[in-house]
Amino acid sequence: MSNPLHKKHDFIERSILSALAFLKDATLSEEYANRKGFLQSLDPRFNTISFLAFLVTAVSLKSALLISSLYLLCLILATLSGIPIRKFLLRTLIFIPLFSLFIVLPTLFSFVTPGEPVWSFHVVGITGIITRPGLDGAVLFVVRVAASVSLVVLLSMTTRHSELLKVLRVFGIPQVFVLTVSMSYRYLYLFATMIENIFTAVKSRVGVVSHHRHGQNIVAWNIANTWNRTTQMSEDVYMAMLSRGYTGEPRLLSAFHAKPQDWLWLLCAVVICAFLFYKGYTL
After folding, report:
1. Would you kindly state where each structural domain of the chain is located, as residue ranges?
2. Do 92 and 147 form a contact (C-beta atoms < 8 A)?
3. What number of CA atoms fall less than 13 Å from residue 193's CA on the CB side?
4. pLDDT tens digit string along 179-226?
5. Quick one: pLDDT at residue 44?
6. DSSP states of 232-251
7. How far apart (Å, rounded) are the C-alpha atoms in residues 83 and 33?
8. What is the mean pLDDT of the chain?
9. pTM score over 0.85
10. 146, 31, 184, 142 alpha-carbon torsion, rounded to 10°
11. Distance in angstroms (rounded) separating the CA atoms of residues 99 and 112
């Protein structure tokens, strides 16, 4: 007969390790950026400009249908760039868009957004009425967030981190900002690895904690120890970067070179954005 306490600890362990693995895979992996695909073959500067134009368009449009067309374009680009659609959808639709849905949920009802009733229900003596303006606004907000998040994630998945940092400097972003982002990126990977090592060490020495007070003591000690180690690690990371000649200016072995296909892609992106703005104005 299985032990419920053992199942509970197995669930916690799997949740912690899965969360850390997802963090490292979502923010630190350059697996797809190193593949041969459509977006990977373009100059990172033109990629960034085009995606910035798409992002501004998605934020500015007031039609959920037009924003959905941008999202469809994002899925097509992900397919052309060798990114599995299922994995891309899991990465872009689970957290932020779903969280935005819960945020906008109260605006569906008449006590927040009055207007034409669409559907009403009764629960425990409380009457809820969903209105047309509330439903339209909620759909627009969720679609806009989903499209914006997908565009940003697609750009980060198909462009190397070092190239993105160099593009920021090309566009005149202050050096201190680029240096901070670069250090945070490197530190985040070390921090996730350190958490995994601590968890493995505690499990190998303690095993299953049978008393809640004993477990609280272990957790409290590890929080304090992790804080001290992360503070020291941040200094070590900074000194290691300085010792290798890093001054806050991203440097690459290969220089950026604009090709005819880069200009063609930028022209297509401008035409798409202009067309969507025009359709949004005429609707």
Report:
1. 23-282
2. no
3. 7
4. 777 777 777 777 777 777 777 776 676 655 555 565 566 666 666 777
5. 87
6. HHHHHHHHHHHHTT--S---
7. 10
8. 77
9. no
10. 0
11. 19
One-letter amino acid of 243: S
- β-partners of residue 10 are none
Helix (H) or strand (E) holding 152: helix 132-158
What are the CB-based long-range contacts (under 8 Å, 24+) for 132-136? 134/107, 134/108, 134/109, 134/110, 135/108, 136/64
- List, in order, residues 6 or more apart from 48 with CB less than 8 Å away: 155, 159, 164, 167, 171
Q: How far apart are the first and last CA of the chain?
A: 64
Per the CB < 8 A criterion, the answer to whether 153 and 91 are in contact is: yes
Query: What type of residue sits at position 184?
Result: S
Give the pair of three-digit tokens for residue 276.
Answer: 């969507």
Single-letter residue type at 70: L
Token pair of 215 as six digits: 């477990």
Structure tokens belonging to residue 12: 């916690």
Those residues whose C-beta lies under 8 Å from the C-beta of residue 176, and which sit 6 or more positions away, are: 248
* Phi, psi values for residue 112, rounded to 5°: -105, -45
Assign 210 to helix, strand or coil: coil
DSSP 258: -
Q: How far is CA 132 from the centre of its chain?
A: 31
Residue with tokens 């104005």: 281
- State the residue for tokens 């209105």: 131
> What is the phi/psi pair of residue 118, to 5°?
-110, -40
